Structures are given as structure tokens and as C-alpha cells.
Amino acid sequence: MDNWIDGKPVSLSPVESQPHSPRYMASSQRERESLEVRMREVEEENRVLRKQLSLAQSQSPAHHHGNHSKTYSMEEGTGDSESLRAGIVAGNSSECGQQPAVEKCETIHVAIVCAGYNASRDVVTLVKSVLFHRRNPLHFHLIADAIAKQILATLFQTWMVPAVRIDFYDADELKSEVSWIPNKHYSGIYGLMKLVLTKTLPSNLERVIVLDTDITFATDIAELWAVFHKFKGQQVLGLVENQSDWYLGNLWKNHRPWPALGRGYNTGVILLLLDKLRKMKWEQMWRLTAERELMSMLSTSLADQDIFNAVIKQNPFLVYQLPCFWNVQLSDHTRSEQCYRDVSDLKVIHWNSPKKLRVKNKHVEFFRNLYLTFLEYDGNLLRRELFGCPSETDVNSENLQKQLSELDEDDLCYEFRRERFTVHRTHLYFLHYEYEPASDNTDVTLVAQLSMDRLQMLEAICKHWEGPISLALYLSDAEAQQFLRYAQGSEVLMSRHNVGYHIVYKEGQFYPVNLLRNVAMKHISTPYMFLSDIDFLPMYGLYEYLRKSVIQLDLANTKKALIVPAFETLRYRLSFPKSKAELLSMLDMGTLFTFRYHVWTKGHAPTNFAKWRTATTPYRVEWEADFEPYVVVRKDCPEYDRRFVGFGWNKVAHIMELDAQEYEFTVLPNAYMIHMPHAPSFDITKFRSNKQYRICLKTLKEEFQQDMSRHYGFAALKYLTAENNS
Predict the structure, then answer these.
(1) Residues whose CB falls within 8 Å of the CB of residue 138, separated by 6 or more in sequence, listed in order
(2) CA 476 to chain centroid
(3) Its principal location (predicted)?
(4) Tens digit of each residue's pLDDT (9 = 90 or more) over 113-148
(5) Which one, of 414, 444, 463, lies nearest residue 668 by Cα?
(6) What is the pLDDT of residues 473-487, one digit of tens each?
């Protein structure tokens, strides 16, 4: 059997581990030599056994719910004497032959309660910090409301991190379990849901680490998982002592906290021994305690933490007290600095003040920098395999590999073709979103996409368009945080709750324009959408005008694409026309032009601007080669083709597809939009300067047209003819 000393394995036989064995009676040289020989033999036996077990494990499927399998890693320990890193149990030598506590491929289970838009952002930062340090498979159990589930399910699905499993549990279904408890804490009803985890999580799950969303890990979570092996007797809860004076009372006049043992315990980090808690009838225990205390306390101040502490006050034997570095609490008036002498002592940082990063603490700058490191860390770098641990086969990942393997890497257009299959990590509804579409079924969402260099357009668009907006933003992790700070500092943007900001994280060398459009289109809640671009300002009142046009032209029952005529100005300062008459006057004076008049007339010529000048009723136009108007369509219109990235043909192909599906193009006589000037995009510069870029775009166009012919048959021949004639 194995003992561990200073983080290193020392193999002893059962006899030799007794007090009267030769190890403890070093009086005889012969006995010492005999012991050394025996130890070498046992070490060799252990080495062979480990090899056999390792082979057996590599052939067996990964475990998900169970918390114990049979193979132990002998290489994981680093000898950290504070906590004996990566699962080595410290100070536990009284338990004969204690095995190393965390197996190499053991799944670590983590439960998090998460509700709403802001908490979803916090969860991502927490998960990044865990993934950064981890060396084990992880299984996250997310108790989430409908909003958080939609956001996080998409995020993890597109993140595609190996050896990570996610399960969701409906927080809204659990509300009735805790809604009878009045709670004054800012976390609301969701702050009480950790109390019901024994009922909520799978009955065969034996243990779990429970974390608040405002936690940052500074070490491998396996170290914390290892602490379960230190629990003795009836210990079922692992908690760190509260580091503020809250439960001592007298913080202010008439301050009366819930009962607690001494300083009480903080529930930002909890180790739950679920199987034992269930046997102890935990559900009954906490409910009776809460009912009794609420008779005099009337409500909780710190949500579940008050009830956990009241139970512990009655039953102190339930707690295993964790060293305080497992939950360094950064609330105001905290004693947390007594937990660490040095950076290497820190394990978990807990931003448990409503002020979060603005909290007062002597070392807050250091903690803030650690937090910001993960906040801005490129999440794509965390898609690393765990070597030596069999991964559960992921269908999406397998399909992706299959598609990529079919591409020819020697093809000069390989990078273009590859982009079509790239899975971009996507964080939906990055900011709070709240909008109920109009009940008359006429509502229209403006759809657009942008990168960091077009951020300044957002406020202007919001001033011109009061309706709902769906935006896909192509950003790095660090840029996403810059955007967040920009938005939170803007009165215009913060006053709007009907703008959905969907972050698509950067990956690869091309701007995936049509993927971005598809993401923005997919996440609208209205029956109609206005497919625009970020550098256009819609006319004042366009939102209401489009809603009337939708009814007038019976868009609900006909396949129509309503065209909003596009114009442009070359002036950065423009007195925006407030009417069609004013716009025509500016057009005549040369202040405005029809869009792309100077460089790409064909793109908008079919709109027939000469007719539009005098039109008072909507009129139909026919598709022509290279037509790319901005249109209003039903939400069930086809997606954009992802093969087109960067500059060129991305809208043209979509309009062609609409025509192939027999959409009628109808120009609106009293609608207009104006393109605002900006520096050329990186992609148009590449298109103009790189011959291979232009060759690949031409190849992709031809392939798209062939696909159209195959899909739509004889009717699609006109696209080939039109292209050849243009």
C-alpha cells in the first residue's frame, strides 16, 4: 500500500507500516538492508501494477456521474506542502495507505447557479480560470434560467473544449422549492437554490464542488476536489470561514444577523458530499431550520448562506473547515489578507461585494489584474486536449474533422474553404436584453454585423432606429471587454434594452461576414427583419414606416423582399435629410449620391433611382446580375452563404438565392438609408491588393452558381448567363 510524504510516493508493505517494523527500529544494519530490498521489490510490483491499470483504463470508457474509478496517477503531485497540489492528501497519514486523492482522468464535478445576462458573463470568466489550470476532465452542472441556458448552451457548444461536459437544470422549475423564503440579498431567489442541490443533481452523483459566479481560480481545481478525502465522520460540507464580521453582529445599530458558529461560513465555495447529505435528510434539516429562524428573522440577508450557517450552528459536526485560501473574500471590511502571505498561497478569489472590482482592499490591484487576465484571455487557447485521458466522442467535433479532412491542403484557396467550416465561439446576448415584440405581428428588427472599428456607429443607429436591433460583433476576448466598457459608459446604449449584442469570437484570418449575419438573423424575436449594414443610417421614422409597409404589402402571406433604396455621402459631417424632398435636393446638389455610384453602379442600379424620385407607391423590379439591395424580409428567409468571407459577393449571392426562391423585389417609395464614410476595411484592401484573393473569390462564385444550378435546376441557368454577359 502507498503512503505519501512531501508529495512523493513511498511504498510500504502492511507489516512495515506498523510501529514495530524495521522502518522504526533502525538498530540493525541487516534489518535496514532487508527493508531496502523489500521496498525495491514492492516499488517494482507497484510499477508493473500501475502499467497494467493504465492499460486497462485506456481501454475503458470515461465515467461521467460516478466519482470513483480505479486508476490513480502517480505523476501528478508537485510536493506543495500547503495543500499537496493535484490531489495529494496532506496530514492524513493516520489513515493507513491513503491513496492519492485525485486520479489522472477522474472527472471533477462542479455546480453553478446562474441566471440572467450578467451572471452568464461572470460564469465564462470563472470557467476560463478553471480550464486554464485544470488537468482533469470536468463536468459542469449549471442550474440556469431560460436566458442563461440559451446563452451558455450556445457558448459551450461553439467553444468545443475537450473533456468538458455540460448539463443544465431548469432553475425556474426549482423556484417553488425556495420561493417561500423572503430574501433581501441582491442575488434574489436564485441565491437560495444551492440549498436544493441534493434533490436537483443526479441521485448517483456523490460529491460536487459548488461555486458562486463571482469566483476566480488561481490553481488547479483538482486540489480542492482532493479535500473531499479529508472529510471524516459526519462531515458533509466543506466551507471557508467568513472573513468579515457580519455574523458577529453590531456592525451598525440594530444589526441582527442570522445565528452562526463564531464568524460563520461563506458559501461562495462549498464542497458537498451529496450521498451522505441525502442519507442525513438534508432537505428536511435545512427546511425545519429555515422555518424556525424565519419566525423571528423574517427574511434572509445573505440568501442561502444564512440558512447554511443556522444549520451548522445546530450541527457543527457537519462541517469540514477549509483553509481560508480556498475562498479569499474581497468584500468590504474583509480580513482576507490574513489568508495569504504570498501570491503562491492564493487558490480562489471571491468578489463577494456588490461593488465587485471596485471593492476596497489593500491588494485589490493585484486581484483585479488576475481577474482581468482571465476576462481578456483568448478562450480558443483553452481548447486543448487532456493527454492520456479518453475523451467522450463529440458528434459536432467528429463531423468538423471529417469535413476538414476532405479539403485539399495544397489548394491555393484552402484557407477560404476552411473558413466555411470554422466553428466560432459565440456568446449570445452579451448585454441585458428585454423586448416583447408588438402584438400586431408587424414588428421589424434591424440586423447588422460589425467589428471593433465600427463601434462608433452604434449610438447614431440607435438614435435613428427606435425598434429592436440584432447585432453580431466580431471581437477578440479583450475587445469584447473594451466593447462592454464602451457600452456601459454610453447613456444612449444603456438606455436601450431592445438591442441584442451577440459576440462571435475572432478566429482565422478572414472576416466571416456571412456567419455574422446569420448569427444576428437567427436571434431575432420579431416576424420581420431589415437586413442592413452597420455603416448605414436609416432615415428617421423608418421603423414605423416599415411596420406599415409590412401590412400594406401583405408580407405575412407573400414572398416579398422590400427594398430600402441606399444612398451615400462622402462627408463625415452630414446634415441628415429629414424627408424624401430634402434628400432629393441634396442629391441634386451633389451632397449625396446613389450608393456605390462611382465604383459599383451595378450593385444598386436595378432599384431604378430615376423612377424612385417621383414614385408615390411601391413598385416591383427584376433581379439583375450583381444586384445587392438592402431588404426587409420575413424571418424565415434563407441564410447567407458562409463560403463568402471578407469582401466580395457576400450579399450578391444572398439576393440571387432570394430570386431563385421566387421572392418579389418591391421598392419602397418613401424609404431611404445613407451610407456614412469610413476608412477602407482590411478585407477590401486585401481584395484590391492580393491577386490570389480575387482568383479565389472568382472560383467560389463559380462553385456557388454551379450549386444553384444543381439545387434550382433549369430556372437557375439565368444566373450563369447573366454572369457571362456582365
Answers:
(1) 107, 108, 110, 130, 131, 163, 164, 165, 221
(2) 13
(3) Golgi
(4) 999 998 899 999 999 999 999 999 999 999 999 999
(5) 444
(6) 999 999 999 999 999
